[in-house]
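Onboarding guide, step 5: your first structure request.
Type a short instruction followed by the sequence, for example:

Predict the 3D structure of this protein.
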Amino acid sequence: MSEQPFDHAPAPSLDDFARLARAAFDALPAPFRAAAGEVVIRVDDFPDEQTLAEFGMEDPFELTGLYSGVDLARREGLGSAPEPSRVFLYRRPILDEWAERGDVGLSDLIAHVLIHEIGHHLGLSDDDIDRIEDAAD
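The system replies with structure tokens like these:
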């Protein structure tokens, strides 16, 4: 039996994901990056138990990303939010979706999740984001 090209390739690490997320963010149009402001991008393997409980989820593979913070539409005044705005990207669920789909590159999937969560930071709902994505296709 011959060796396959991915037989000895390690899964992308948290640092690899962080680099891919940074590259995806840097590739966004300047106005979108500016609107995102000081949002912190964090990569974890999985959401924590509290986050899963808040969403009524038992399977940590169900959640690929999360926005945490007060979105721009709900902030009062021009000051900063009481807590830093954060986008979480969850490495293992994203890798799982990427492997199952097989129709999208890993960098593209990371960018998709990142953009979706930044959309929440901007105050957009899932329906708003879906309409924007549908119009772009």
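Each response can be followed by summary notes, for example: Strands lie at 40-44, 65-68, 86-90.
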